[in-house]
C-alpha cells in the first residue's frame, strides 16, 4: 500500500492575505514531489511543510497570473541552494503555458538563474495542448479552460501576443484521480471531468459554488476541497450549499492541509 498526498501549500486568491499564501499545491508520489503552481509565498510555505526541495522533480504552472507564478524563480533558487548545500545536482521539468515560455526563460536568466550554472538544472516545456504529461508514473492531462477569455477584446484591439492559456489538471496516479481546477472561467469548465473523481480541488473565486456542488452530488466524487478564496470570503454559504445537498465529503482548504490518497501498488 502506498500513500500519495496532495498538499495545499497556499489557499489564498489573487489578493494576498495576511495569514495565507497564494496558489500552490504539492503532489507527493512515494516521496517524489510535483509542484502545481508557484504563487507568492509558496517557497516559504513549502519549507514550513517540511518537504525536501531535492525531492522535487517537476513544476507545473496553470497560467501566468502572479498569484500562480510569482514565486517560480525563488522556488528554483530554493532547490538550487538545497543542492549546493548537499553538493547534489538535481534536474527538474518545468511546464508553463506556451505563450510565456520564452519570456519566463529570459526572466529566469535575468535573475541569474541560468540552468547551466545551477545545482537545479531545469528544463522548460510548453504545456501540451494535445495530450498529457507523464512524470513519476503520474499521468497529468492539461484541460484548457476559460479563465482568461475575458481579455479577448482588449488583446485583439491592442494586438497583444497573449493567448489566454489557462489549464486545469486531471491527475491520475495508481488508480486514483485528482482534478485541480486552478482558476476557471466558470464551474461549467469542469462538468465533463467530474465523474468518479477521487479528489476535486476547486477554486471558489470565479464559480457558482452551489451549482458546482449540485453536479458533484450526482457524479460520485470522493472528496471536494474548496480553495483559492479572499480574506473576507464567507465560507458559510458554500458549507450550507453542501449541507443542503447532503454532501459529507466537502471541506474548506487551509494552508498546510494534506489530502491522503491510498491505493494498492501493483509491482
Ligand atoms: Zn488565481
Q: How would you characterize the overall build of this protein?
A:
This protein is α/β, with parallel strands linked by helices. The chain has one domain (2-263): Metallo-beta-lactamase, Chain A (4-Layer Sandwich), CATH 3.60.15.10. It is 23% helix and 30% strand. The protein has helices at 42-48, 66-69, 72-86, 101-110, 152-158, 209-217, 235-244; strands at residues 2-10, 24-29, 32-36, 56-60, 90-96, 120-126, 133-135, 138-144, 167-173, 176-180, 199-203, 223-227, 250-252, 257-263. The strands form two sheets. It has a seven-stranded mixed sheet with strand order 6-5-4-3-2-1-14. Strands 7-8-9-10-11-12-13 form a seven-stranded mixed sheet, covered by helices on one side. The model has no long low-confidence stretch (mean pLDDT 95). Zinc ion binds at residues 13-14, 23, 65, 67-68, 183, 228.
